[in-house]
Amino acid sequence: MFDRIVLGKGSTYGSSVVFLVEDDSRLSALVGEYLQSEGYSVTIIPDGSEAAAKIPAEQPDLVILDVMLPGMDGFEVCRSIRPAYSGPILMMTARDDEVDEILGLEIGADDYLTKPVRPRVLLSRVKALLRRSTQDSVPNNGAMNFGDLRVDIANRRVEVADTVIHLTTAELDLLQLLAEHAGETMSRDQLSRSLRGIDYDGLDRTIDLRVARLRKKIELNPSQPRYILSVRGAGYMLPPEPDCG
């Protein structure tokens, strides 16, 4: 048994720091060793209250967060850290309940896996969540303006009417992708593959919930969006010149 383990960096990537918040010592050791073997530096935290204090203070590159935890459950931890932590959060749970998944995504989780998790699936999700926030270059490294919306890709900064908007990494990645393809309809499959590294299965609501969260932050009236438009039966689009009416 252990309270907290820091596993050293491996040789494959050797840069990204992952906090694994999981109270099952056997599972956390297996997951931690697997990620470490893939080149990640992994810190295991078995208590929700400890995680809620350490994540904002230490700002890891990614958090893998179990739902059932002592101290604070995963939902409470996610809700608590979101105002001070913008990095990706991947939630895991043994409960196969769509309500849990929707709740987790609505309070700020970026992706969701149900146990038992296959190692390669977990690794693909981790890579996808980290890819866009840690990429060395982007197609357009300048700022793009869409009416009152300003997306500064180089500095990963978003403003609406000269007010800085705090976005999570996943929200910013979604907005950046739509901005880079302004005027084009991006299907849910394109968005899911680009942002999550998996194909859209026709049922998963992750992309839709991420769009809804983003709209709440950048739209004056999320029910009548100007910036992120729904294209019926096709996907989403950020128009080059939003309606200013």
**Biggest sheet, strands in spatial order?**
1-3-2-4-5-6
Return Rg in Å: 18 Å
| Distance between the amino and carboxyl termini | 62 Å
Tally of individual domains? 2
Query: Helix and strand succession?
Result: EEHEHEHEHEHEEEEHHHEE
Say how many strands there are. Answer: 12
Gross CATH architecture of the largest domain: 3-Layer(aba) Sandwich
User: Main beta sheet: strand number and arrangement?
Assistant: 6 strands, mixed
Indicate the mean pLDDT: 84
Helix content range of the residues, please?
A: 25-40%
Query: Which range does the strand content fall in?
Result: 15-25%
**Low-confidence blocks of residues:** 1-14
CATH class of the largest domain equals Alpha Beta
Q: Write down the CATH topology of the largest domain.
A: Rossmann fold
Backbone shape: globular
Structural class: alpha/beta
Q: Identify the CATH homologous superfamily of the largest domain.
A: Response regulator
Counting DSSP H or I runs of 4 or more residues, the number of helices is 8
